[in-house]
Design a protein that fits this description.
This protein has 106 residues and is of the alpha+beta class. The chain contains two helices and three strands; from the N terminus they run βββαα. β1 (5-13) and β2 form a beta hairpin. The protein is globular and about 40 Å long. The relative contact order is 0.23.
């Protein structure tokens, strides 16, 4: 069968260790979705970034290394959590590049 896409799960550190970020990447190299599946963040921080649309900011973008503050905007009062999520997405992008042989992505 044909590959429909890729899903990667990465561990990252936001305000606290234990942030687990799942990233989907389509066969066209675009981010299909980002979700936080586990976290040890201060109560409300992940809800704050989710409610602000931070996870959706990656959707549809080409899988490449993202820089917080340039490619995606951090959520005010949850900057470390935003950074941890971005790190998790960047890990997924790197793995995608290794699997697919895409040059210059990570």
């Amino acid at each position: 069968g044909q590959t429909a896409g890729y899903v990667f799960t990465a561990s990252a550190t936001g305000k606290s260790a234990g942030l687990v970020v799942m990233t989907g990447i389509g066969t066209d190299g675009r981010i299909t979705g980002v979700k936080v599946t586990e976290n040890n963040e201060t109560a409300g921080y992940v809800d704050k970034v989710t409610g602000a649309g931070f996870l959706d900011a990656f959707k549809g973008k080409q899988a490449k290394a993202f820089t917080l503050g340039q490619d995606v905007d951090a959520v005010s009062q949850a900057t470390k959590t935003s950074g941890g999520i971005t790190d998790g997405v960047n890990q997924a992008v790197g793995w995608y590049a290794l699997i697919t042989g895409e040059e210059g992505i990570s």
